Prior knowledge:
231 residues; Glutaconate Coenzyme A-transferase; eight-stranded mixed β-sheet; CoA-transferase activity; 3-oxoacid_CoA-transf_A; CoA transferase subunit A; transferase; CoA_trans_fam_I
Amino acid sequence: MNKVVKNVEEALAGIEDNMTLMVGGFGLCGIPENSIAQLVKMGTKGLTCISNNAGVDDFGLGLLLQKKQVKKMISSYVGENEEFERQMLSGELEVDLIPQGSLAERCRAGGAGIPMFFTPAGYGTEVAEGKEVRVFNGKPHILESALTADFAIVKAWKGDTEGNLIYKATARNFNPMMAMAGKITIAEVEELVPAGDLDPNFIHTPGIFVQRIFQGEKFEKRIEQRTVRKR
Length: 231
């Protein structure tokens, strides 16, 4: 089945105000740059964004925060974004902070059809408030719920016309499980190839999870903090 759409505008058709979006990436690595730029252009508001982080002030999801398009962030690491901090402390932005491993597993569980699971992460902290606690092997665990989204937007290194995806390096951290958990999953890729060109042994996300795929026009691939050795 050919799942290719012409461009980012066609890919994001149907995203409306007050929807929940999963947005792949780890820091600024593996983020769907073209799709985020299009969301800013669309002006869609009241979004709940599930993402490991919120980008930086002038890139990634930080662009949506600047335009006040996000009402709630469900995230793990948000330390690089001053506008995020300002909105959170002022009460403009609702925030649900989740341990990084729990966030990944909640997305994976959503894609696997597992409604809830127990984890020791977060026990004894604010993360556990209001959640059921059970003891397994002498250790307390808290009950966490799966996460799903109206749309999941991911970025891959390579993809084929049937939606099969290969991620590169750190981009593989959150994109694969988020691709599983969206009612509609959109993939933007650096290289789009014909069906059959990808080695099945190296596919990270099977095309069954992807409904729309397009080739991005350009990827800036910023680095949050560039650190180099002295020569």
